[in-house]
Amino acid sequence: xxxxxxxxxxxxxxxxxxxxxxxxxxxxxxRLCTMREPVCMETVVERIKKHxxxxxxxxxxxxxxxxGTPVTVAxxxxxxxxxxxxxxxxxxxxxxxxxxxxxLDAVANGTSVILxxxxxxxxxxxxxxxxxxxxxxxNKIQVVVSETDKDPLHVV
Length: 156
Hints:
Blueprint: E1 14-18, E2 30-40, H1 41-52, E3 58-60, E4 70-77, H2 82-85, E5 92-95, H3 100-108, E6 112-115, H4 118-123, H5 126-136
Parallel strand pairs: 4-5, 5-6
Antiparallel strand pairs: 1-2, 2-4, 3-6
């Protein structure tokens, strides 16, 4: 896995480890993040929106939770991460998309869910990947992240 850039706002504020359950074929990689210090849900939401460059996202608060509830453990998977996240014990699931019933299940179990749409969650890493590739290529090749590629779904 590629490391988070030391210039990233996230660097140094979280501990990242791979999920312990085996990954399913074609589901991608998940991460279980334990915050060094709890962060309230409202702050987590704002940081995610800023990092992904989104004006909005979808939030389902876990049973008994509020925007002021602290988040200590977050499970995340870019794209459609429900099969990777299902059953993982966390305060928060962060992914692109989950079915209605998967969200209801997480919420009933006290886990909040943030959905940012499939490709938006994949794009958030592209700047980190660009910098890592440029460094590994000795800055001999210009690595460019598209500014026109975007999620095909719009809120109207």
